[in-house]
Write a structure and sequence with these properties.
The complex is a heterodimer of chains A (159) and B (797). With 159 residues, chain A is α+β, with helices and mostly antiparallel strands. Chain A is built from 5 helices and 5 strands, in the order ββαβββαααα. Chain A has 2 domains: 76 residues, Beta-grasp domain (Ubiquitin-like (UB roll)), CATH 3.10.20.30; 72 residues, [2Fe-2S]-binding domain (DNA polymerase, domain 1). Chain A is 35% helix and 16% strand. In chain A, a hairpin with a 2-residue loop joins strand 3 and strand 4. Chain A is globular, with a radius of gyration of 16 Å. Chain B is of the alpha+beta class and 797 residues long. Chain B has 19 helices and 32 strands. Classes of the chains: A alpha+beta (159), B alpha+beta (797). The interface between A and B is large, with 60 and 63 residues.
């Protein structure tokens, strides 16, 4: 039987009736139409479905929507302010860190979470933070470069 | 990664004139020209904000959900199928079996030997025995469970050599040998008689999965006028169309195929959209409703094409100084259950032919003999995967070159310097390489950038505990542009409007490689407008000219030329009109950066759009249609001699690895890859292809394998089908070298597939250099490396 829940996504609050076994991924994509969150494996192996819950990257395909009440969820749609991309998004675009783009939303969200916690990560720290995100196109080099560049820009802005 | 967060980091591009190896020259990244600049990809903003709709993101209202019941056996006769219970399940719209296929019950990129729905027999566990369409995916799944199939198992065949035996069970009526080709050059006996050293080795590579991130999806939508619209991520919309029309039994013009955004393809989305397109269309035909088939990850692994496994036997002979004198090779290329992309398309298309042509490597060898067998088995079917027959043979020729160098006590670089192709070299097929041969340029620049000579002296243990050893390895590579078939050609349309804006129509698809950025760059450059003035139209077989498939590293070169020809037709109108308006002879006019100006008096100029508006007002042609086919391929079926592909891309890779001598674990610690690409239309996009290709080649070397047991795949999801992560792929230094291809747009040639080819053997050679053990059966996972180390230790004792 469906249950009523309240979800806070990208600063908006939604009241929804969801099946108890519905994953956060299904609810985001099918009920809220937030299709920027991608599903590639459905078993938590690839990182494509990553969203931020209270600032931490979480695999939405392994998370029950019911468990997310009262938490602050951010999806890829919530990063840009209007047409202005976030520094991580901008750096991904500028560095050529995007090819097919299917892993990009999850990758960008994990990178955003990393930089919130550690404003100047080393290359090793970036690699470690993105370890759970599979990318078949880029070989990761330009993604790591983009995260590093975003870190530099965010640091410069804070000065 | 660049050492600092410097957004002005420029991409290094070396042209032959600038190939002074004492200094790496930076190409100009500024200036008005559009080609040669690292323009940001046109879809980047949509992708990075999550706004780009992939197939799974399309609205599903009104759609039925299609599912496929697959075979339980690798080889069996179908005794009976009972669909009654499934049909009675509420919410089920159709349950189809073989007799429901309205037209030809067979599809395939080349030979339609794969049933849309199997009627009498199944040939691998991915075969379809029934199709279901239901109101929800869940109901469709339930319906599959209710279908009862009785099989009569047949003895299966899993090894291509077994498949060739006379008493082997026949998988297809015409026998198990799908194609055989041979190459004969020189005199083998004489050749080997000149050799001081002869080596014989066998190398073996497994099935590989493309593991593109975006799962396959296809939508078939019956239109009121009787047209069937098929939409999905796909590399070859025209091939999908010519299969769907035959399967439905309707003319080609009753099928419309639209390519939608694609999350990776690597050759895999050449075959699977044919499969899904035909099956979704048959369901839509019967239900008269839109049907979508979305594969789950496990289904993709089960059902779709794989990289061909090969068993490669080589006998090679060389003189003491390293000069190669004879090469004999045998290739057993495993096609699996269906022909797919495998078999020969005259004169030089087909996976085993491509492998045969490339097997001796980018080396001059006077005496060569290769036999290539392409065999059916009861395994998944082999299709194109980034290199189509070439990655396999690179594993063989680059390893045996190192084994030969070791036997002769020559530096691995020097044996390649001695034998590698130069301008006017003759290949094994007798093709004289008249132009754009930058192999040695890449070898020298890579040697220098990697600091090979120093590192070659510094291998050995890296830790005090003496458990880890460092080694370095090299891999050379060559790869064709184009596919070697007689029908290989591209068409493009260019429309200029009265405000100076441009529409570009091509059938080349975007899968992440960047064609939707590079092709408009070429169009803008040729017309003399800005990048943002050109909008590329999404490929749609009702709208764009036939362009062939997006494969074979052909898009930039073949389509680039077609675009230039189309743009020139329009430009002629524009310049004629501008000549009238400015009273300047046409041959003095230049179109650049939205202005038409007199070369001798640049003050005399007009805006591109004013001239376009005048053309429109005067009824002058503003539409161009370009068509370009490369110089015709040749390959004699008896001798394997000829010019199978019109130009090649060349490359040198160097890798450093650290091998754990106790566990066999390998870490790739440094990497340089240099490529002669003719001309980098978009240098950053070329770098992206190089880095991504190296990562894929690393996966082939160290971890990837579709594990099969009795015809059943053991690793269906990404949990146990491993692909490289951010911790596996090292910092890669890509180097772009430009040795002009005179048949290419602005001198360009192909790059898409090439970068993964030399990466695999470079890493394998580095492992052997580090630990003394050589892994000849891939992947070189810790267990295989461990045993290779033990074998090497035994040999020393």
């Amino acid at each position: 039987m469906k249950q009523l829940i309240e979800l806070s996504v990208n600063g908006e609050t939604y009241e929804l009736a969801v099946e108890p076994q519905a994953t956060l991924l299904e609810v985001l994509r099918n009920d809220l139409g937030l299709t920027g969150t991608k599903e590639a494996c459905g078993t938590g192996e690839c990182g494509s479905c990553t969203v931020l819950i209270d600032g931490r990257p979480v695999l939405s395909c392994l998370t029950l929507a019911l468990d997310c009440t009262g938490q602050d969820i951010v999806t890829i749609e919530g990063l840009a302010e209007g047409e202005r991309m976030s520094p991580v998004q901008q750096a991904f675009q500028d560095c050529g860190a995007i090819q097919c783009g299917f892993c990009t939303p999850g990758m960008v969200l994990s990178a955003t979470a990393l930089l919130e916690e550690n404003s100047r990560p080393t290359e090793e720290e970036i690699r470690k933070a993105l370890e759970g995100h599979l990318c078949r196109c880029t070989g990761y080099n330009k993604i790591i470069e983009a995260v590093n560049k975003a870190a530099g820009q965010m640091a410069a802005r804070q000065k | 990664m660049s050492k600092e967060s410097d957004d002005r980091r420029e991409v290094k591009v070396l042209t032959r004139e600038k190939l002074d190896l004492r200094q790496l020259v930076k190409a100009p990244e500024v200036g008005p020209s559009v080609v040669g600049r690292s323009i940001v990809r046109t879809d980047a903003m949509l992708k990075v904000t999550g706004r780009l709709d992939f197939g799974a993101d399309y609205l599903q209202d009104g759609f039925l959900h299609g599912k496929i019941l697959r075979s339980s056996h690798p080889h069996a006769l179908i005794k009976s199928i009972n669909t009654k219970k499934a049909k009675e399940l509420p919410g089920v719209a159709a349950v189809l079996t073989a007799e429901s296929v309205p037209g030809r019950n067979g599809f395939g990129a080349i030979i339609p030997d794969q049933p849309v729905i199997c009627g009498d027999k199944v040939r691998f566990v991915g075969d379809a025995v029934a199709l279901v369409a239901a109101e929800t995916e869940k109901i469709a799944h339930q319906a599959l469970e209710l279908i009862e199939v009785e099989y009569d198992p047949l003895p299966p065949v899993f090894d291509p050599r077994e498949a060739l035996k006379e008493d082997a069970p026949k998988i297809h009526e015409k026998g198990n040998l799908l194609s055989y080709n041979k190459l004969r050059k020189g005199d083998m006996e004489k050749g080997f008689a000149q050799a001081d050293v002869i080596l014989e080795r066998t190398y073996q590579v497994p099935f590989l999965d493309h593991a593109y991130l975006e799962p396959d999806i296809c939508m078939a939508i019956p239109k009121a006028d009787g047209t069937m619209l098929v939409e999905g991520p796909m590399q070859a919309p025209f091939t999908v169309r010519r299969n769907v029309n035959a399967v439905l039994g309707v003319p080609i013009n009753k099928v419309r195929v639209r390519q939608i955004p694609m999350g990776g393809g690597f050759g895999g989305k050449e075959d699977s959209p044919i499969d899904l397109g035909c099956r979704a269309a048959v369901l839509a035909y019967h239900t008269r409703r839109p049907v979508r088939i979305a594969l789950e990850r496990e289904e993709i692994t089960l059902q779709t094409s794989k990289r061909h496994p090969m068993i490669m036997q080589i006998k090679i002979g060389a003189k003491k100084d390293g000069t190669l004198v004879a090469f004999e090779g045998v290739i057993y290329d495993e096609q699996g259950a269906y022909a797919s992309m495998g078999p020969v398309i005259p004169p030089a298309g087909g996976s085993h032919i491509h492998a045969m042509v490339m097997m001796p490597g980018p080396y001059e060898i006077p005496n060569v003999k290769v036999d290539a067998y392409l065999c059916y088995t009861n395994h998944p079917y082999g299709g194109a995967m980034r290199g189509f027959g070439a990655p396999q043979v690179h594993v063989a020729h680059e390893q045996i070159m190192d084994e030969l160098a070791e036997a002769l006590n020559i530096n691995p670089i020097d044996i390649r310097r001695k034998n590698g192709f130069r301008e006017d070299s003759a290949t094994a097929t007798g093709q004289v390489l008249e132009q754009s041969v930058g192999l040695h340029d890449t070898l020298e620049v890579c040697t220098r950038a990697f600091d090979w000579d120093r590192r070659y002296q510094e291998t050995g243990y890296v830790d005090e505990g003496k458990t880890k050893r460092r080694g370095i390895g090299i891999g050379l590579g060559w790869y064709r542009t184009s596919i070697g078939t007689n029908n290989d050609a591209c068409g493009a349309n260019v429309y200029v409007h009265e405000d100076g804006s441009v529409l570009l129509y091509t059938g080349i698809t975007e899968m992440g490689q960047g064609s939707f950025t590079v092709l408009p760059q070429i169009c803008a450059e040729e017309l003399g407008v800005r990048m943002e003035d050109v909008r590329l139209v999404q490929p749609d077989t009702d709208v764009v000219p036939e362009s062939g498939p997006t494969v074979g590293s052909r898009s930039t070169t073949l389509m680039g030329n077609a675009i230039i020809l189309a743009a020139r037709q329009v430009k002629e109108s524009i310049l004629e009109m501008a000549s009238e308006m400015l009273m300047v002879p046409m041959d003095r006019l230049e179109s650049r950066d939205r202005r038409i100006y007199d070369r001798d008096n640049s003050g005399k100029s007009l805006e591109f759009r004013e001239v376009a508006a005048r053309c429109m007002a005067k009824g002058k042609r503003l539409i161009g249609q370009g068509w370009w086919a490369p110089p015709p391929p040749t390959l004699d079926p008896e001798t394997g001699q000829g010019n199978p592909y019109f130009v090649y891309t060349y490359s040198t890779h160097m890798a450093e690895v650290v091998v754990d001598m106790e566990t066999g674990e390998v870490e790739v610690t440094d990497y340089v890859a240099a490529f002669d690409v003719g001309k980098a239309i978009n240098p950053k996009a070329v770098e992206g292809q190089i880095e991504g290709g190296v990562a894929m080649g690393l996966g082939y070397a160290l971890m990837e394998e579709v594990a099969l047991e009795g015809g059943y795949i053991q690793n269906l999801n990404l949990k146990n089908y491993l692909i490289p992560t951010s911790l596996d792929v090292p910092d890669i230094e890509p180097i772009i070298v430009e040795v002009e291809n005179r048949f290419g747009p602005y001198g360009a040639k192909g790059i898409g597939e090439m970068p993964n080819l030399p990466a695999t053997p470079a890493i394998l050679n580095a492992i052997a250099n580090a630990c003394g053990g050589r892994v000849r059966t891939l992947p070189a996972d810790p267990e295989r490396v461990f045993w290779a180390i033990k074998e090497a230790e035994r040999a020393v004792r």
